[in-house]
Amino acid sequence: MMEEVKQEPPCLSVHGHSVKVAEVLQDGDGLTFLIVSQKLSGTGEYHVDRTYEDFEWLQQNLFTQEDVPGIQGVIFPPLPAKAQMNATAKIIRQLGFLALEEFKPYCTALETFLHQVAAHNLLRKNKALEIFLTSSEPPGRQRARKNIFNRLSQAVEEMRKEGHKDVDEFFQTKRDINLALTGCTKSAADKFLDVVLTEQKIAVACGHFAAALHLCVESGDDPDKAAFSKICVKLSAIFESMKKNMTNVAENDVSTLGLGLDLESRYQEAEKEMLFRRTCKLVELETARKNAEKAKPVKKPPLEEVKKAAETEFSHICEVAKQEIEHFEAARVKMVQQALLKWCEKQLHTARELADQYNQHLKAFRAM
Amino acid sequence: MASGTSRNPPPFPKNDETGEGLSNLPDGDSDEGEDIFVNNSMSPGVCQPVRGGELPAGDAGSHTSAQSNGVHSDEDNDLFSDAQLSTDKSGSSSQKELSSSSSSRPISSFSPSPAAMPTTSLEELEEEEDKDTFDVDVAVTNPEKVGDGMNAYVAYRVSTRTSLPMFKNRTFSVRRRFSDFLGLYEKLSVKQSLHGCIIPLPPEKSVVGMTKVKVGMDDPSSVEFVERRRAALERYLQRVVAHPLLIQDPDVREFLEKEDLPRASNTQALSGAGFLKMINKASEAVNKMTIKMNESDTWFEDKLQEVENEEQQLRKLHAVVDSLVNHRKELCGNTAVFAKSMAMLGNSEDNTALSRALSQLAEVEDKMEQLHQEQASSDFFIFAEVLADYIRLLGAVRGCFDQRMRAWQRWQEAQSSLQKKREVEAKLLWANKPDKLQQAKEEITEWEAKVTQYERDFDRIGMTVRKEVLRFEKEKTKDLKTQIIKYLESMLQSQQRLIKFWEAFLPEAKAIA
Questions:
Q1: Does residue B328 surpass a pLDDT of 80?
Q2: Model's pTM, two decimal places?
Q3: Does the distance separating the beta carbons of A191 and B502 come in below 8 Å?
Q4: What is the average per-residue pLDDT within B292-296?
Q5: Residue B338 near residue A194 (C-beta atoms within 8 A)
């Protein structure tokens, strides 16, 4: 057991996997999320409304848990970027799949975040989570934000450390693979988004064609005109079917593989951050060792203390990191598999639907 | 990581090439004799009409005798029209051809209609249309580049299959180049006898397209251009041979049959927007007419309005289809890029099972790219091109109406000339100049004959236009129906292949865990 706490911190009073981001409401440019959780004891639910700032507050608290040794070795569940109404094109692109379908995927992503925090054995006992899920007062609105673990705010010279050679082959391999995977996954998610956006355009064009055909319909007794109008109406129906189908295809894409790739991509980033933190600690440790070695005997004791502390911290981090990586590998393969499977099943179903409709339309046309 | 499934989808029935852009079409590319005609393998039975009736023994006999004199078919018209005030010849001119779509080429029989037609009522004209069928099939295949450099051109094989006795053989083929098709149109469009007829339009010239082809026929855009042109030429010829008057024209027969055709000159006028310019010029001339026609029959006015409205609607439809085709092509590109990115992801993945599944996924996406390509082709060739055809045909229809107006104008002008001549005669009578009087009387007779002739011409053109428009409308509906069936079949087939791809991937996805 890694935890050296003296007393058991309070447990979560709700079922972690029951948490739902049930609704999203517009509040000016901002969004408010309605979160519902099932109480552990008996029946009953907590209903709370939270904004993105509240999520960030939660995340900060998770980052700054001081009572957990090796906390920096944790692969923190990734929080999606901030979403808002009337966002710039850049932000929308950055959000990718999460910005589509009126933020339904975004809600799913936030939900997943909360599930993962609640399921993480080191994180779920954090008071912040309990407050976040159950308190009627929004916790995060007034606090100042401190981005300790946010890579973006790290100084430029720290970036050099990323390439620092590792002492442990296991970790060096992991770092190399992670680097490749992060890039590839992001790229795949990006390209898939392009596919989905084009599918949506096709759906719209089919709808336009269906509508334009209706304009060709004429009333009157002329049998020729009637025959032509009938054809136009039927053809319009065909294109309506195509429109609906293509809309479903795009939705299937987003809700399964799209979300899957998005989550995988953000999780790879989270792993990358963890590995980077460990590398930074390694550099710190090596520096401390050097300092302690070089120091004159008078100055040695405090530097030895620093060195020992760094060694302990580093070893804790490695321990936690190894477990996290193992857990992460298993979880993500499962997650991707689920995404692929659901994607395939949904698309198969949708494809069969359209084939049936084509058959029906074909019969109707041949009979005319 | 076995890649058991092949990278290419099962070949489309008529496609030999893969990934060749829009040349992947189930349309008349194969060289086998029978296939070029009945090339919609999905529904060989769909557009085959019932072979009712006998071969053209009786009536064709009368026509071949007319043909062998090299006489134009409208002289037959005149022969009959005196007798019964009808331009319904016994059979040929009111043939109802089946759709001139590029896929269904039905082999129909030539069944004569009753010879005696007491009136030219619209209802009876319509009944006529339903009864008669045709027996000529044409196909345009095998585009081949001839020559090199900027003098190169593309020659197409034009194959005909027919049982009409006016042709020397039952099946035959010749090689023609694009300017030959343009030349045929030019010859037909200036014939007085065909005034009032809706003469089908060949595709437009394209300097850009042809220059690319002259440089090399291998790149996808050249392939697409040549295929598009081939299909358009085929539709053009099918419409020509389906027209009851045009099929009898010796120029048409020569085009189909003669080994070597003299090079058509003066096709410069038929460049790019040339056709529409020609037609619009005629419209302008009509609008500038000082004497406005007193339309006794509102049918023409109403119809012309309808035609103009329809043209607008078709333009809108065409624009929408165009945008749909572009999006599908975009989807093709995006799918290909996505497939590559998945392949890379699969390669970087260290988990073996996941790596394998992702690679399979990349292959599935590759196959889907092909599907999207084919769907884009379907949209394009079945809808976009046909809509474009009809937009131009409607222009030709407007042209017929203008020809009628010009015929009226000529008649009116003749009448006014006659009037002048009569005034001259009156003056001469009063001035008592007997020698000039004789000449004046001769001129009056001449102009009286002209007036009669022009009035007759005007009536004839009027009736031709009515018939043509009726025929066109029926034709259009049938054509559209055939195209839609073809489209549905092709989409259904695509969809079924898509289903197979998903079904094949499903076990791969399950096998990961």
A1: yes
A2: 0.77
A3: no
A4: 65
A5: yes
